[in-house]
Amino acid sequence: MITKKIYPLILATIIALSAIVVYFIAYGSLGGVNSLPEGDKSNANNELVNPIKTNDSLRDKIVNFGMGLLGTPYVAASCSVDGFDCSGFVYYVFQHYKIQVPRSSPQFENFGKEIPIESVKKGDILVFLSPTRNVIGHVGIVTNPKGMESDFIHASSGSEMKVIISSLKQKGYTRRFVKAVDVLSD
């Protein structure tokens, strides 16, 4: 039988143990971090921040960002998450990383460092002729480099009418392929 004098002691012990458990759950995973380094005022409120660690290269980040836009509708002369044309898509993805590329596909004719198709890497840009005229008219971003069989992401004005992944080995793209451009030069 618990006496009236022992009951408050048991209750206080339970509360204290609960507080200790909550403390270790909340702060035990921080590995001893309890403040910002001296002079680092980037987090003035001293809120704990768990940075996302990633080993992705800039090329991987560009491709992954573009992949997040798969299925976005094709909209002529557009450059937003509501819709893209081909150059608007490439422009939008690279602008996200503050990398300057042309906004219009014909401007890719003399832009960037041309590289052999066998040397393409993720994040390089493929430049194509228009399907109807003998001028630069389409661009995409390499997602899976395999020379003339590379895959690329682009805003297609074809039957898909959205951001898709295609292969350079498809006849329509092989026939229209002009060059590969490296704008990252790493």
What this model shows, in words?
With 186 residues, the chain is an alpha+beta fold. The protein contains four helices and eight strands; from the N terminus they run ααββαβββββαβ. The strands form two sheets. A six-stranded antiparallel beta sheet has the order 3-8-4-5-6-7. It has a two-stranded antiparallel ribbon with strand order 1-2. Strand 5 (136-144) and strand 6 (151-155) form a beta hairpin. Helix 2 packs across helix 3. It is elongated. The termini are far apart. Residues 22-53 have low confidence and may be disordered.
What's the arrangement of secondary structure elements?
Elements: H1 6-27, H2 58-67, E1 79-80, E2 83-84, H3 86-96, E3 113-115, E4 125-129, E5 136-144, E6 151-155, E7 163-167, H4 171-176, E8 177-182
Antiparallel strand pairs: 1-2, 3-8, 4-5, 4-8, 5-6, 6-7
Helix pairs in contact: 2-3
Overall SS class: alpha+beta
Listing every helix as H and every strand as E from the N terminus to the C terminus, the arrangement reads HHEEHEEEEEHE
Radius of gyration, taken over Cα atoms and rounded to an integer in Å: 27 Å
- Tell me how many strands there are: 8
Q: In order across it, which strands form the biggest sheet?
A: 3-8-4-5-6-7
Terminal residue distance: 76 Å
Largest sheet: 6 strands, antiparallel
Shape: elongated
Query: How much beta, percentage-wise?
Result: 15-25%
Tally the helices: what do you get? 4
Query: Low-confidence parts, pLDDT < 50 over ≥5 residues?
Result: 22-53
Mean pLDDT: 82
Helix content: 25-40%
